[in-house]
Every structure is written in structure tokens, then in C-alpha cells.
Write a structure and sequence with these properties.
Number of domains: 2
Oligomer: single chain
Strand content: 15-25%
CATH superfamily of the largest domain: Type I PLP-dependent aspartate aminotransferase-like (Major domain)
CATH class of the largest domain: Alpha Beta
CATH topology of the largest domain: Aspartate Aminotransferase, domain 2
Helix content: 25-40%
Radius of gyration: 22 Å
Structural class: alpha/beta
Distance between the termini: 32 Å
CATH architecture of the largest domain: 3-Layer(aba) Sandwich
Shape: globular
Largest sheet: 7 strands, mixed
């Protein structure tokens, strides 16, 4: 039977009628799990025993790949699963287990696995022209779709969100003649733009200024302090890696206004959040940046990135002008990605579909909050639209949530992130809610109050 979704407003005290964005905080935060470390060890052993083939493949991969993988976020204890097949919103691992895919490849897997319209479009395009050292019609068509959809004057393509953010920073620095970039604690803009702890030694060597997210007064103070050499303010309308924490509308609008007042460029990193609503989360919050960056789902499963904005800023890349900023990249306009993107924005994820999917995500998050409300455990849910995250109040509880859902056939991120894909059925979402309910009930039995 399909899940009956209710309209709900998630607040700091519970669930109320209506719709809005918010955070539900468990009223029973004083409850703690007994012997959490021992329970984590038990669940890890159960995980390992169930997955001998994934364990073997991981050990073999470590001989040629540092750590046994080439994407750090996918690693977890005791070892990451190896998946061998996907179908719709279902994943199959090397040991024959089946999972409802609630991770959605960290927002990139919006269309699930084996979307025929994308595959057919790419196959047809690649039969016409493959790796071409020249211009082809698909890149212009995708650029037209992006400019119309997201309100951009001009756009340029890259191969990832990381590249898109690096070039957006370059655009701002060249335009302003300044060097500093204001970012936010908990932000993630790519592998070399990582601010979970305020900065990382492997970050790109820009002079960063780190502010607190959703603190407009503090950010404005830093903007004023560094105004003489501040090139850009770079912000996610919702922290992705940082736990699916949405920006307050007043914060985002005020931040962009303060950036412009200081002569800096306002950049919205919408690599993840452009899936929300008709034109992205910044637009939903009523905030207008100077530049936006994109990635993930628009490539339909192929590598994709883009940055775009005003004609004035993007005109710096116009090769008909003296001193234009060079922007090379063999696969910037690769045929597979460009053809896939045209189908994605032109047919699969129209503005109407995006609006409906965002509303569906809001309803599902309300249902998750309802499940959490029935259990006296310190677990909360945050997010907006089709992106959400579960938060246990200790690392052990966070891991137990991940392993508990996994053992019940639901695949999420170890950090609790969930991203809904289009092929997910109401029945699969209902099964996922039941798995969460069962996981929490099991964990509650380990509580000293039970």
C-alpha cells in the first residue's frame, strides 16, 4: 500500500499542520545508548560476515588503489560494499543483497539506475560524433536550457562541481582584482575546497576567510573587515556535506547584499541544490547571486559541472576579447554529457517535475520526523526538499543508524545523508520508513531506560 504523506511543518518542538522548512529535535535527548561501542563492533562483525565477496574485492582493490577506492567519501568501516548492478531505485551488491537506494549518489543519482531515455540519447549522439576536438550542437542546446531554467546570461561547462567552483572563484578574482574568498564553516565546494573544520591543508591555496553559517551579523562583520581585498563570497544555499542544513532566507539575501556592497562577487554553490524547486534553492529563498555553480544530476550519470551568471562576469571568458581568461578542458563539452544534459533538463527534470519532487521530499522528511518522534532516542532530521540527513548525537549512534538501515535493505550515507531519486516508489519509501522504525526500536532496547 502506498505511503499516505501528510502535510507537516517541522519545528524545534514537533510536527504542526502546514508546510515549511525546519528541524525536528527529539524531546528525549537525555536518553543514551548503553554499550554503544560494543554494539558498533557487533554490527560491524555482522556486516563483514554478510559480505565476504565485497571484503575480497576490497582487499584486491587495495593492491592497486590506495585504500581500495578512488572516492574517499565512500569508505567506511569495516569496508565499503561493492555494487555490481542497479535497477531503478534498487542496488545489488557483490554478495547478492538488494537495497533500496536512498543515497542517490549524493544527489547525482537523481534518475536512479538504467534510465533508458538518457542511455538512448547518449547512444544516438555518440553514434553521430564521439570525442571531437571541435564544437557540436549539443553544448549550445544544453547551455540554452540552463540559461532559460536558472536565469543565467551565460554559462560554461566543466567536468565536476569542484572545477565549477574553482573557475567561479577565478572569475571573481579576475573581475575584482582581489584575492580573498569568504566561505563558511561546514561548507564543501569540492575536494580542494573543504571547510568541515574551518579549512584543510590540502585545500586550494587561496586566502580564505571562514564565517559561521546562518550568522548574518558575523558574516557581515567579516565582509566589512576584509572588504579591501575580498573577491568573493562562496556559499551553499544548503550545506550538503555539512549535514543538510538549509540557509535562512534572510541570511542568504543579506549575505549577497553585503557582498555586493563591498564590491565582492556573490557565488551560490548549487551543485547539489539546483534540484530544488523550479530554479534552485537560492531562487526559492529569494536570493539572487552573481554567479551560480552546478554539477551532479544534470549530467544524467555522466561527469558534469558548470558555472554561469551575468554577461559582465562571464564575458571575461569571451575569446573574441583581448586578454580573455583561458578555460581549456578536453571533456568540458564531451558529447555524452552534453547529450545527457539536454534530455535531463529538456524532458526528465523539467521545472514542473522538479517542483513536484521537492514537495515529495518535504512530505517524506515529515514522515521521517514522525518516526523519530515515536522513539526516545537523540536522533534528529534536517534538510529541504529531496535532500535530508539523519543525525545521531554521537558518532557511535550515527554509525548504528547507518548499519541498522543497511542490514534492513536500505542504503544511505554513513553520515546519514538521504537523497530521493525519481524512480523511488511510495512502497519503497514506506519500506524505508519501516526499516528506520525497526532500527530505532532495536537501538532503544539497548538504552538503560528500557
Amino acid at each position: 500500500m502506498a505511503t499516505r504523506y501528510r502535510a507537516a511543518r517541522l519545528t524545534r518542538t514537533g510536527i504542526e499542520d502546514g508546510t515549511d522548512r525546519g528541524v525536528w529535535e527529539n524531546r528525549h535527548v537525555s536518553t543514551v545508548l548503553a554499550s554503544a561501542t560494543e554494539l558498533v563492533g557487533e554490527k560491524r562483525r555482522e556486516f563483514a560476515a554478510r559480505n565476504p565477496q565485497s571484503a575480497r574485492l576490497h582487499d584486491e582493490a587495495r593492491l592497486v588503489l590506495p585504500g581500495g577506492h578512488t572516492r574517499t567519501i565512500l569508505n567506511h568501516e569495516p569496508f565499503p560494499l561493492t555494487f555490481v548492478r542497479g535497477e531503478g531505485a534498487v542496488l545489488f551488491d557483490a554478495d547478492g543483497h538488494e537495497y533500496v537506494d536512498l543515497l542517490g549518489d549524493y544527489t547525482a543519482g537523481l534518475f536512479g539506475h538504467g534510465e533508458r531515455r538518457v542511455l538512448d540519447a547518449v547512444d544516438s549522439a555518440m553514434r553521430e560524433i564521439a570525442s571531437v576536438g571541435g564544437i557540436h550542437p549539443y553544448e549550445r542546446r544544453l547551455a540554452e536550457l540552463m540559461c532559460a531554467r536558472f536565469g543565467l546570461d551565460r554559462v560554461r561547462f566543466t567536468n565536476s562541481g569542484t572545477e565549477a567552483n574553482l573557475f567561479a572563484i577565478t572569475t571573481a578574482r579576475m573581475h575584482t582584482g582581489r584575492s580573498k574568498v569568504l566561505v563558511f564553516q561546514g561548507g564543501y565546494h569540492g575536494g580542494v575546497l573543504f571547510f568541515a573544520t574551518g579549512g584543510a591543508p590540502w585545500n586550494a591555496p587561496y586566502p580564505f576567510v571562514v564565517a559561521s553559517y546562518n550568522d548574518l551579523a558575523g558574516a557581515t562583520e567579516l565582509i566589512d573587515e576584509h572588504a579591501d581585498d575580498l573577491a568573493a563570497v562562496l556559499v551553499e544555499p544548503m550545506l550538503g556535506s555539512g549535514g543538510c542544513i538549509s540557509a535562512d532566507a534572510a541570511f542568504l539575501r543579506g549575505l549577497f547584499a553585503a557582498a555586493r556592497e563591498a564590491g565582492a562577487v556573490a557565488i551560490a554553490d548549487e551543485v547539489m541544490t539546483s534540484r530544488h524547486g523550479r530554479a534552485g534553492l537560492a531562487a526559492l529563498l529569494g536570493a539572487e547571486p552573481d554567479l551560480r555553480t552546478y554539477g551532479k544530476y544534470i549530467g544524467g550519470g555522466f561527469s558534469f559541472g558548470a558555472f554561469g551568471g551575468s554577461a559582465e562576469l562571464m564575458g571575461q571568458f569571451d575569446t573574441s576579447r583581448p586578454g580573455a581568461i583561458p578555460h581549456a578542458g578536453t571533456f568540458n563539452n564531451n558529447v555524452a554529457t552534453m547529450a545527457a544534459g539536454c534530455i535531463v533538463l529538456g524532458e526528465l527534470y523539467t521545472a514542473d517535475v522538479a517542483e513536484a519532487h521537492t514537495a515529495r521530499g518535504e512530505r517524506f522528511r515529515a514522515d521521517v520526523a514522525g518516526v523519530l518522534a515515536r522513539h526516545a532516542l537523540p536522533v534528529t532530521v534536517t534538510g529541504y526538499g529531496s535532500m535530508l540527513a539523519l543525525h545521531g548525537d554521537t558518532p557511535e549512534l550515527q554509525e548504528l543508524l547507518f548499519l541498522g538501515l543497511y542490514l534492513r535493505g536500505v542504503y544511505t550515507a554513513p553520515r546519514g545523508m538521504v537523497n530521493l531519486s525519481l524512480p523511488l516508489t511510495d512502497e519503497q519509501l514506506q519500506a524505508s520508513l519501516a526499516a528506520l522504525e525497526d532500527t530505532l526500536a532495536e537501538l532503544a532496547q539497548s538504552s538503560p531506560s528500557q
